[in-house]
Amino acid sequence: MHEQGLLDAGVAPHDAEVATSQPVSLFGIRGTVKLTVLRSYPQDILPVVASALQRLRVQAAGPPVCVLRPRGDGQFDVLAAYPTSRRPRIGQPFTTCRLSGGLVVRALHHGPWTTLLNTYDRLSEWLALHHIRQVPLMWEEYLVGPDRTGDPAMWRTRIVVPLTGTSARITTGRSAAVTVPLSP
């Protein structure tokens, strides 16, 4: 299901979707960020990345993304990026990487980034309830954000967690995406 399809289908913020993601190339800026500034990092960095893509005449191939890898010291390694169909060649501070495809669980958050933690908490509970281990990497896809509207209540962020183990009662093998409630 594509980004607009999730919004059109009315997937509520309390639902999780188990799906197969496709590999994607990203172009962005990496940083190590404290939890206290994690929410402002994408808003500060993504316009710089968008400007560089424009100068390079490279079209973004999807909504902006922030890849998050928790560190042991309470900070996060973060890549604020845009998906691209080709890897632009440019120096520091820009970098490219590739997210491999595979089975993921994703939840759609409605509202400002300051309330994302609530959706993460519910998603973590859902993963634990279904005995699904998550790898120490996740990403946020900013389907509707400050680049499209100044009203944070209209923002839509898809949280994506790659899966390392799944339960047969969740993945049916018949469909690429199965929507299930986050709440038990």
From TrEMBL:
Pfam family, one: GyrI-like
Organism per entry: Paractinoplanes brasiliensis
Database matches in InterPro entries: AraC_E-bd, GyrI-like, Reg_factor_effector_dom_sf
Protein name (record): AraC effector-binding domain-containing protein
Origin: domain of life: Bacteria
SUPFAM superfamilies registered for this protein in UniProt: Probable bacterial effector-binding domain
Domain AraC effector-binding: 14-164
